[in-house]
Specification:
By secondary structure, this protein is mainly alpha-helical. The protein is 70% helix and 4% strand. A hairpin with a 4-residue loop joins strand 1 and strand 2. Helix 2 runs antiparallel to helix 8 and helix 5 crosses helix 6.
Amino acid sequence: MIAGGLIAEGLRLPMFGVTIFFNIPMVIILTLLVGMAVGFVNGIIITKFNVAPFIATLGTMYAARGLALLRSNGATFPNVRGVEELGNTGFGLLGRGAILGIPITIWIFLFIGLLAAFILKKTPLGWHILAVGGNQRSASLSGVKVDRVKIYVYMFSGLCAAMVGLIATSELMAAHPATGATWELNAIAAAVLGGTSMSGGIGSIGFTVVGAFVIGVLNDGMIMSGVSSFWQQIIRGTIIVAAVMIDQYQRKLQARLTLEDRK
């Protein structure tokens, strides 16, 4: 909705009596910054006010959806093609364009995936993220700046969410405030199926990508098979619960084996 509004209506400054129209690269940057800002707010609420992460992110999700509706009074920005005279055309290339015959969305996916994998496995920040997820107190006692790490993670999450919104808007060439309303379930399912522990401390970008592919194939398969959208939600929810149950069983089994080895 931020990108759609900037392209369709520009940035209105009533106090100066002007409206600013940005070119497409600037629209993308501003939208990504808004996503990072939402992630920053999440991080501050969780670290500084000690609000449970699930509650904090659930609350900001509803607030963001409300703001998206307010942005256009619940209406759609039906055409985000821009106007040549204003220099804001070309947004469709993000979701529909290709480089070397490969869709730009695939290049973006590869770049973000490789960047995340590099950060997680090859940088101190990545090891700090795993340490905080595994045992926050131990990480803090080891000198890890826990609050800062959490804020970085939520900002990166906001950046990725904003990029998904940009791609979806570009593919549809329209911005609707309800787009992606249930996609959080797919994100959770992909991470869980990829082996990310809901208890923290265990996760892999590569396996998460595999989990995303599984969810994508499953969703497409259900659609092609004519499965009702209601049943699709039930199946996705069941998969998430089953994956978490398996994760908990594996952690208990590992703890039991470790205890027996010590004996």
